[in-house]
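Appendix B. Extra example for self-study. Work through it before the problem class; the solution is given directly after the inputs so you can check yourself.
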Amino acid sequence: MSGATSALEVRGLVVRYQGHPAVDGLDLDLAPGRVLALLGPNGAGKTTTVEVCEGLRSRDEGRVAVLGVDPAGAPDTLRSRVGVMPQGGGAYPGVRVREMVGLVAACAADPLDPDWLVETLGLASCARKPYKRLSVGQQQRLALACAVVGRPELVFLDEPTASLDPQGRRLVWELVRALRADGVAVLLTTHLMQEAEELADHIVIVDHGRVVAQGSPESLTAAGADRELRFRAAPGMDLRLLASALPEGCTVSEPTSGSYLVEGAIDPQVLSTVTSWCARQGVLADDLRVARRSLEDVFLELTGRELRS
Amino acid sequence: MSTDGHAPRFAPGTFTPAPGRGPLGRMLATQVGLETRLALRQGEQVLLTLIIPLALLVGLALLRVVPLPEPRVTSVLGSVLALAVISTAFTSQAISLGFDRRYGVLRRLAATAVPRWLIVVGRLGGMAAVVLVQLVVLGAVALALGWRPGTGSLGWVLLLVVLGTAAFGAVGVLLGGTLRAELVLAVANIVWFVLLFAGGVLLPVAALPGPLAAVVTLLPSGALAEGLRAALLGGTPTLGQVLVLLVWTLVAGLVASRTVRWS
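Solution. Structure tokens for the complete assembly:
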């Protein structure tokens, strides 16, 4: 974990599809032993960015250095240092789990033990099952095994937990933390705020191919919210009574369904007014926080609330 | 899946980077072995590459439904070897490539340390291994049915099998590497069927109506099957037959190298 060299450096990346920019001037930095989360809604350009870094897609403008090397030609020497978990697929339809991990392991000089990896990722029971008969979660864990089996310096994980159950998600998180602790750099894309918040040292929120915000999870959620109280409760509560009970200068609103925001000088008095009002309504105020936005709030404020296809 | 999760699952140092490319020989052997096993374990592919050719070999050698030069089993072996090559190099290859692309295998492999040329060579190696299995199985059954290989003919047979595998392999890669998987499946099976009956494989070119015979002579199926029957019956393939196979290989290979998509 020297931290001296950069694992990934992207400057001014532009990728166009039929003239439209899918990625529009993106900058990224990732150091060894760090986790960078690329967070954004569907179609934000996350996968395109990752594929350029993997050398699987060409770029129109900008500079990319993966472990100091331009991935455009995808030299074999670079690819042997990088692990890739693509989004969906990535195995022969008829290949068995253990065979696929073995195939990718055979490409590496000093791979992890495929049997151990299959066992540890909870795939032992389906080790002889063909890929096409695996559940989506099993396919995803197999893809993860293939990404790390070669002991890479840098790992690209494209939506690693997208269709995993909670146990599977915990497992992946544990793995990412272990990679980080062992000095591996990890770039992961996700649209799960909690995932980015849990794992990343640095979060880059992208939308329409551009960086709309970035920083540590703490700095992103703390910014511009020094006079806020947020809580969750049943959606659509009548706020008039609460508004009248709050001290002068405090307002209350419901910015998103079930998520309430009290703005003003937040003191213990305000806090107790809110909780006792909730108690009178017979609801439990959940996730109650002062002066701290959830990453989801930040995300929605930055990328808008309309649904993306 | 184990969810006991409190003890750390990954000991510190487990993932300490130790990158590097595996030995080329090991990569190639692993890939060829896997491609071969995949081809020989998939029911539909085995039906196409072994069961149907075997059934035709036995059936046509024993039943006189198709006019063929004597010794009958020798002529039939020529037809069946041609069919076996078409099944493996063209139909089976195209279909598996179509679905492998759909499943993202090539992109997956392209993201490992495997050089791209090795991915192609690995596929070809798997194909060659299956053809070898076909030659051995079909040859052994033909021997049991009374085929006696003539001296000198086996060299020509091997040459034609190699040329035919190359020509149909190139066309198969072109088909499987450019169209959607479902379309590949349909086209590859229809073409196989048409070539079997009207492409000079089962029925000799001489038994086909004039205009069709002229076309079939220029098809790789006609050239391969006619050449194999001639070679097995003690003759040699014509220069025309060899040229037809070479031209198809070159043209399809060239077009494929420009149009085939990895995903």
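Self-check: Chain B touches chain A at residues 1-3, 5, 8-10, 12-23, 26-27, 30-31, 34, 37-38, 41-42, 99-100, 102-105, 107-108, 110-115 (CB under 8 Å). If your reasoning did not lead you there, revisit section 3.
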